[in-house]
User: What shape does this take?
Amino acid sequence: MDAGGQNARRVGNVMIAVEKQPKNQKKLSTELFDDVPVLQRKWLAAVRPGEGLPRYEEVMLGSLGRLADHMLLLNEKNERLEVSRTGRYVQKWLDDERWDIPLSALTPDCATALGEAAANAIRNSRPHLAAAHCVRDGMVRTYDVLALPTASRWGGTLVGIYVNERDTHYNLLDAIYSTTDEGVLSLATIRDAAGRPSDFQIVHHNKGATRLLKVPSSELQWRRLSEGGNLLCSADVVLRLRDVVVRGHGDQFELDNDDRSLRLSATAFGDILSLTISDVTALKRREASFRLLFDNNPMPMWVFDAETMGFLSVNDAAVQHYGYSREKFLKMQLREIWPEDEWVSHGEALREVGESYRSTRHWRHLKADGSEIQVLTFGRRVSFGGRDGYLVAIVDITERRKAEARIAYMAHHDGLTNLPNRELYQERLKQALESGEGGNKRVAVLCVDLDLFKNVNDSHGHPVGDRLLKLVAERLRGQVRGNNLAARLGGDEFAVILPSDVSPNEASDFAARLIKVLSATYDIDGNELVIGASIGIALSPGDGESSEELMRNADLALYRAKEDGGGVHRFFEREMDRQAQKRRDMELDLRRALANGEFELHYQPLVHVASDSISGFESLLRWRHPDKGMISPADFIPVAEDIGLIVAIGEWVLREACAEAMKWPADIKVAVNNLSPVQFRSRNLVQVVISAPAQSGLSPGRLELEITESVFLAETETNLAILHQLRELGVSISMDDFGTGYSSLSYLRSFPFDKIKIDRSFVKDLAKRSDSVAIVRAISGLGRSLNITTTAEGVETMDQLDWLRAEGCNEVQGFLFSAARPASEIEQLLCRFGARATKAA
Assistant: This one.
């Protein structure tokens, strides 16, 4: 069954929607079930493949017989339906014999049913069965309406409609009166010889009357009130009913009996009385308890007159809460507790009140001392002392509103700096963009990042860092005035909106001034702290029309400012977006690369200078992209670190290198280069290093891990502890790119490295620059003194090798010996160097 309460019935190959019958009605007549299939088969038989609707002549002309009396033809013209023909049965149903008239000219009940059926048939190009309910002379009659759409030879659509009445019908008034809970009786007046009303006879009653009067139906029907037997027979009731007939007006009164209260409403229509009986016992009890609940309720309450708006009653809580005496209250009108600027809105709200009322907003009320409170009001219509009024309960939400205001403020402002937060910033940015759309006005977005702020946190602690952020916020507020907005987005990230159609020059001047202000020295507890600021700028609509696009592009500009050394501002350029898209593409490709097996390791030999033999291989990660070919590690390693993928890649490299090294001679080591600080932060590096040799069977003494000084720049103590754990496993630790950092010598004191690698930048200029020779000599001497192996990178010529041999370097690697090669070529390299070593011996 569908949502409209219909059943689907199949006729031929067509599903017809049939309205579900009420339970109290009989099934469709046998005649209808005979007629509908006949018409359906006739319509289906006329359908030709590929031609849409069947033709009118083939469906509606000939062999209809008696069905023709039940048929009506509608013609669709200019999207309007007209009645072209009607059968005799349909004319009687319509009470209209006219042809060629608009459908709208028919009675509304018939026109609506016919129009809906025809519209559904035309829309779906299928027969449609519906029902029409018509009320005639108090009787509800139901008709089945079957619409058959056909094609006209003159163009357009003709709809033949079959109409037939169902077997069942019922009296509308009887149905209504029989189902109501109230008692309904009709009484005929009996007059005496003088023509005065003397008695009444019950000529009609419903089930509600027998239930409320507690007598069977047989003792009510045709019973005279003078015969007694029920509550209506009392002298008081008869007297009031006589008065209703004599005066010709209605009356309402109540009877109390057997702990019940009945309300009687009588109306005279000549000598016929209509009497309605309602059980008001619960209502009377509620009214009896009203006073108790009203007077002693801790919630302020009052009753006011619906017409005069004057107070009729107030409870003790209202007197105490508002401060007016009871006598004063009862002389006042509602408007006297309303602020004057809300008189109109209060009055409008009262005019719209029905039987009950509940605040859709908070209202302001005035107390006796002149102070204002904010309230919610709840009311319902009551009868009070015979007057129409409203009972109102008051909830004082003044403190709650203050708390909500504080919470709302906190939800939109940063708790540390009291600046607007990201949520409010984005909301205001959207508003600025929407208000500027009509005039195509520019809105500037500035992303501000503090330079060197991390150094303050690391050197002085987070409490000092927080105080510094507060001072930065104060300076921002001093520069951002009017309808401009400054916000803290998080950490040391801030943002500014300049919504007043600023030019690029104005935005540039503002950014330069802001950098200067934020970069001035800060004094905290006698300590002079120096930081800087970098700013990225995006301008609508050129750099973006949405808040998200503008923020993203301003952030890209900030990234460029940071890359350019900080302390500067940069405008967004489309090339930045291209680079960002390129990076996003690489991130997506990287996430697939590991799962798809696109990474591979190449190995570059480490050559022992004295023996001219291979002492080990350094494993170098390579990415063979299926479409872009080989991608440089310099391009993808930083991205992998940023997105956290380097940890998983690093684990794979360790396992792969150890497994490959098991295929080599037992005296050949494998070096895994440049462990990332990100891997150290993952805190499971030691477990990974333990498991990789264990799974492959490689001795830990054959594994060498290379790190750079960046490992020491972050969480030095923790990372040193990890390095010591690795060394205790028997793994060798070497420092890569030695001599290029700021504190390499201090690192040698912090950790006993097994090897230091001389950066290729020093090796390249050995034959040209004396300072390079001096540096290599110093590093080699330092290695000998500390018993640390020295390895020179980037050896490409025999002259460089001779210099390094002369300076006492232990190992070398570079293109002079071999570039990094796939694992499949290692055996060939070992054979070649083994032959050279034998020849040299």
In short: Confidence is low (pLDDT under 50) at residues 1-33, 835-841. Residues 574-595 form the longest helix (22 residues). The chain has 29 helices and 36 strands.
